[in-house]
Amino acid sequence: MKKILLSSLYAVKRKLSAVKVWFGLRLGLIKTIQILPYKGFGNTHEIYFLGRVQRDRGIGFSTISDSRWRNFVKMYKRFATWELPGLRVKAKFQGVEQIVTTDDEGYFEVRLRNEDGWQLANYWNQVELVLLDNPLRDAELVKAHNPVFIPYKDCDFGVISDIDDTIVPTGATRVFEMLKTTFFGNAHTRLPFEAVSEFYQALHRGSDDIDSNPFFYVSSSPWNLYDFLTEFLETHQIPKGPLMLRDLGLSREQLFAGSHWEHKLLQVEMIFEIESNLSFILIGDSGQHDAEIYLQVIKDYPGRVKMVYIRHINARDEEKMLKIQTQMKHLGVEMMLIKDTLEAAQDALQKGWIQESGIKDILIEQQKHGE
Known about the structure:
The protein is α/β, with parallel strands linked by helices. The protein has helices at residues 2-26, 68-79, 175-184, 196-205, 226-235, 260-274, 290-300, 318-330, 341-350, 356-370, and strands at 33-37, 40-42, 46-55, 88-93, 96-101, 107-113, 124-131, 143-149, 158-161, 215-222, 243-246, 280-285, 305-311, 335-338.
């Protein structure tokens, strides 16, 4: 009965979306279309990323002086999407091409593979994207370029980090607080936890002081916030990297998107599969099952996790966190519960993963906040 109901509701949703797009095209409400690619990653033979084709709402970048109303309008535009299904997109990199078709929500998935191996001279490489089907008459060719990170040399480890309440305080465990900060703030007004930028930069540089250790950000935030989160990372000088977010809408199988646990575990394990030559440092918080998810990853990929840092934001979870900590220890992985970023950085320095200059940068940042 539940499946029949969901199938019926989903069919109604798609019909309404199709009608909206039909009227939007004929009434001139959709004037421009964009390919919105999401940063990808790969290895020496494979590249993976997602993207979306939708109406270009012209959101643009934010400024520190933007009003709360302007922030709200931009956030509304991010969620009031006009997705375009059934359109073909061609991806091309070093002579290898793939044509994919957008799904019911306008998303597409690209998996480029070169059995002979990519010719690489940089960690970040550009994949060319072209929209082959444009429903707008006499429109210019829609193109985009998507940066993908390929760790082809000099990478000591990768870092996978949560975002909400790990990098930035959001009140993810308090729904009203989270909605308020999301809809009325912007990338400049939202501030990360103290010294996160300096610590992540130190991990990115590693022990050899080369910006080579890749970062991956896995969050339960919706894809609608992709440009917002990307701008946030750039504004606060946090190492760029692929963001693995999720779709929060009604689907054929469920009324809402899957659980935080299911989504995050799937994304982390996909990263482990593609980046099979890397070991990882995992960073999260105690508010949304990150420790439990990382424990499962350790079980599924023995020997691949170097360390787990968990920002301890909820004292009520103390007993549960200590139990998980013990389980990880039995599997040969240390989990450290941290109250501030400096604790994690000092541990990473002791283990030889970052340079002492990283600690100095963190202390300088703390002094600024203490003044």
